[in-house]
Design a protein that fits this description.
The protein is mainly alpha-helical. It has one domain: Rossmann fold, CATH 3.40.50.1240. Helices cover about 35% and strands about 5% of the residues. It has a two-stranded parallel ribbon with strand order 1-2. Helix 2 crosses helix 3. It is elongated, with a radius of gyration of 16 Å. The termini are far apart. The model has no long low-confidence stretch (mean pLDDT about 90).
Length: about 110
C-alpha cells in the first residue's frame, strides 16, 4: 500500500428520534438520542489511536455532536458540503407514507 495516499474514514452520525421511526431525515436539524450519544462515545475508543490531520463534519447537530464525542481529542471543522441532501416534500415521512402517495416509489 502506498503510504503517500491519504486514508479517509467515514462515520455516520448516531441515532436520532427519526432513525427510530424510519423517517427520511435530510436537512432537519435533529439532535442525537441518548443512545446516539452513547454510540458516538463508544466509537471514540476505536478512533482515538488514529493520527488524523483533519476531522470534518456536516454542520447539522446530529453529525457535529457525533464528531465531537467520537473525536474529542481532535479539532472538528464544519463543511456545508457534507450536509445531507434535501428530501423536499418527503422530509420527515417514512417510506411507507411516501408509497401510499406514490405507489412503487423508490429512493434510488
Amino acid at each position: 500500500m502506498n503510504r503517500d495516499l491519504p486514508r479517509v474514514f467515514l462515520v455516520r452520525h448516531g441515532e436520532t428520534a427519526w432513525t427510530l421511526t424510519g423517517q427520511h431525515t435530510g436537512r432537519t436539524d435533529l439532535s442525537l438520542t441518548d443512545r446516539g450519544e452513547r454510540q458516538a462515545r463508544e466509537l471514540e475508543a476505536g478512533l482515538e489511536s488514529l493520527d488524523c490531520d483533519r476531522v470534518i463534519s456536516s454542520p447539522l447537530q446530529r453529525a457535529r455532536r457525533t464528531a465531537d464525542l467520537a473525536m474529542s481529542h481532535a479539532q472538528v471543522e464544519e463543511d456545508d458540503d457534507l450536509m445531507e441532501w434535501d428530501h423536499g416534500a418527503y422530509e420527515g415521512k417514512s417510506t411507507a407514507e411516501i408509497e401510499v402517495e406514490y405507489p412503487g416509489w423508490r429512493l434510488f
